[in-house]
Automatic annotation (TrEMBL):
<feature type="transmembrane region" description="Helical">
    <location>
        <begin position="35"/>
        <end position="65"/>
    </location>
</feature>
<keyword id="KW-0472">Membrane</keyword>
<keyword id="KW-0812">Transmembrane</keyword>
<protein>
    <submittedName>
        <fullName>TMM68 protein</fullName>
    </submittedName>
</protein>
<keyword id="KW-1133">Transmembrane helix</keyword>
<dbReference type="GO" id="GO:0016020">
    <property type="term" value="C:membrane"/>
</dbReference>
Length: 163
């Protein structure tokens, strides 16, 4: 039997020495509680902040960035034409490619069944899912594939948003 002054590293492992193994495991658990768990809690908190605040703010930033680019295009090119005219096609294509790349890289967005849309006028009823930004992804992909514009009906609240 091991006395109180002897260490667990005496070289002989007897059945009574299992208490030494349990003591070593206990010190590891205490080490984890003291040092590793705060690191885990901190990293989870930072991850939650990133998911809930930074990602939506990035999307809002890109929406305003797109609006500013279109405004600069209008001012620099001195475009006085209607926004639905063909003069805006190069700017539309640039913005649509940007949003299409963003949708595929960040959200893995895919669009199926566009070939089933009629060539003439029609009404599309779109369910935007969890976030309304999906509609912007849809418009971008539709413009790039079919070279068609899709006019939208929105609540009056949308037009009160700045930008």
């Amino acid at each position: 039997m091991i006395g109180r002054k002897e260490s667990c590293d005496s070289g002989q492992i007897l059945m009574t020495d299992l208490s030494c193994l349990a003591l070593e495991e206990w010190t590891v658990v205490e080490f984890l509680k003291k040092y590793l768990f705060p690191v885990i809690i901190t990293s989870l908190t930072i991850s939650a902040i990133l998911v809930f605040f930074v990602v939506p703010l990035t999307i809002v930033f890109f929406i305003y960035f797109s609006s500013i680019l279109l405004l600069l295009y209008q001012r620099n090119s001195e475009v006085k034409a209607d926004p639905l005219s063909d003069v805006w096609d190069s700017a539309r294509k640039t913005i649509a490619r940007f949003w299409d790349i963003y949708a595929r890289v960040w959200h893995g967005y895919e669009l199926h069944g566009v070939e089933n849309l009629s060539e003439g006028p029609g009404i599309l009823v779109y369910y935007h899912g969890a976030i309304p930004i999906d509609y912007l992804y849809f418009l971008s992909r539709l413009f790039l594939w079919k070279k068609r514009l899709c006019l939208s009906v929105a609540d009056h609240f949308v037009f009160r948003l700045p930008g």
